[in-house]
């Protein structure tokens, strides 16, 4: 599957040139004329790399970069017609991965794109495999293994466990309902408690060293036998 790149620039000529250049190199590209449109699309479907103009109508590229960084480590390249130290510092502070002046050198832009995509794929591969105690969760083949063998989990149980393993902190029920079940804050349900009960039973039956603890008044967290938290 080809990498998907989002590009935002309110300069239509520059947007067209940049997008076509990336398409010619074999990337899938979706173009946007504002940071707001790009961020709305990103919330619905993430991409593999983002190219953002700094100065745009509506939300500027720096603010869009900051918004994306609140939930994702996707590589971000900032493009700007302003070559100043202050702008560069602002880009770094908003955690962009590269900061290039417009019009960018084509070889330099493509080199940054290729390098950042390779780095991002390595990080994604590492994030695909999570470990806690004797449990190994693999998102690529949707398997969960503990010391006694495979754990047979439903899709919800798998995603529930994955979220707990990825964050390694007490997770409130409202956060789980939003991130795992996709429910809004207004929804009241015992879905988390019912799933926790099933998952706790399966961990116990598998004699895993990991258990699912209820944090009273908050939600759930994973604990390992023999750890300080257990």
Task: Chart the SSEs and their pairings.
Layout (H helix, E strand, L loop, with lengths): L3 E5 L3 H13 L3 E5 L2 H10 L4 E5 L7 H9 L6 E5 L4 H9 L4 E4 L4 H23 E4 L2 E4 L4 E4 L2 E2 L4 H13 L3 E2 H9 L9 H15 L4 E6 L3 E6 L6
Parallel strand pairs: 1-2, 1-3, 3-4, 4-5
Antiparallel strand pairs: 6-7, 7-8, 8-9, 10-12, 11-12
Helix pairs in contact: 2-3, 6-7, 6-8
Main traits of this protein?
single chain, 230 residues, alpha/beta, Rossmann fold, Arc Repressor Mutant, subunit A, 2 domains, five-stranded parallel sheet, four-stranded antiparallel sheet, 8 helices, 12 strands, 23% strand, elongated
The CATH class designation of the largest domain is Alpha Beta
Per DSSP E runs of 2 or more residues, the count of β-strands stands at 12
Number of helical segments? 8
Report low-confidence residues grouped into runs of 5 or more. Answer: none
H/E topology pattern: EHEHEHEHEHEEEEHEHHEE
Which second-level CATH architecture of the largest domain applies? 3-Layer(aba) Sandwich
Largest sheet: 5 strands, parallel
Shape: elongated
Average the pLDDT over all residues and give the rounded result. 85
Tell me the CATH topology of the largest domain.
Rossmann fold
- The class by helix and strand makeup works out as alpha/beta
Number of structural domains: 2
Instruction: Report the C-alpha radius of gyration, rounded.
Output: 21 Å
Distance between the termini: 43 Å
User: What's the CATH H-level superfamily name of the largest domain?
Assistant: Response regulator
